[in-house]
C-alpha cells in the first residue's frame, strides 16, 4: 500500500483509543502488515537497485525524485488522518498512529542500508506478509482509496 493509506488507517485506529499511546503505536504498526497482505499497487521507486539487495544511498536525481514522492505521500496521508480524525485533545495520538502505521516501510529502507538485527527479522516478516499479487494502475490505487474510505467511514460512524 502507499504510505498515505497506512497513515489514514493508523490515524483511524488511534481515534478509537487516543488515551492509550502504547496501544495506538502497537496496533497501528501491526495494521501495516495486515493491510499490506491485501493485493494493491505500489508506485515504482527508481533509486532502489533491487528489492532486498544491500543499497547505498547515492545522491542522484532518482533518489531525490523518490524522496520527494515518498515525502509527498507520507505528508498527504498524515494531513488526511489529522483532518478526518483529530481533535485538539487527540491530535498527538492521531499523529502517533499515522506515523506508526507508516513506520515499517521506512524501516525497510534502513534495513537495506544497515542489514542488521532486529531489522533483518522485521524485513523477513514484512516480505512474508506482503501480498505477491500486484494490481495495476488505476485499479490498484482506486482499491486502496476505497479501502481507506471504508475504514474511515466505519471508524467515524462507530467510533
UniProtKB/TrEMBL annotation:
Domain of life of the organism encoding this protein: Bacteria
Keywords: Membrane, Transmembrane, Transmembrane helix
Transmembrane segments: 135-156
Protein name: DUF3307 domain-containing protein
Native source organism of the sequence: Bradyrhizobium iriomotense
Organism placement in taxonomy: Bacteria, Pseudomonadati, Pseudomonadota, Alphaproteobacteria, Hyphomicrobiales
Amino acid at each position: 500500500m502507499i504510505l498515505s493509506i497506512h497513515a489514514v488507517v493508523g490515524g483511524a485506529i488511534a481515534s478509537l483509543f487516543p488515551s492509550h499511546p502504547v496501544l495506538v503505536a502497537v496496533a497501528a504498526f501491526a495494521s501495516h502488515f495486515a493491510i499490506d497482505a491485501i493485493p494493491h499497487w505500489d508506485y515504482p521507486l527508481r533509486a532502489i537497485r533491487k528489492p532486498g539487495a544491500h543499497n547505498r544511498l547515492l545522491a542522484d536525481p532518482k533518489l531525490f525524485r523518490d524522496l520527494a514522492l515518498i515525502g509527498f505521500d507520507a505528508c498527504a496521508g498524515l494531513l488526511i488522518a489529522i483532518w478526518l480524525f483529530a481533535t485538539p485533545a487527540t491530535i498527538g495520538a492521531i499523529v502517533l498512529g499515522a506515523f506508526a502505521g507508516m513506520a515499517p516501510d521506512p524501516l525497510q529502507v534502513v534495513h537495506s542500508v544497515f542489514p542488521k538485527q532486529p531489522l533483518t527479522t522485521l524485513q523477513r516478516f514484512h516480505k512474508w506478509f506482503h501480498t505477491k499479487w500486484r494490481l495495476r494502475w488505476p485499479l490498484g490505487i482506486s482499491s486502496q482509496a476505497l479501502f481507506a474510505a471504508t475504514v474511515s467511514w466505519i471508524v467515524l460512524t462507530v467510533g
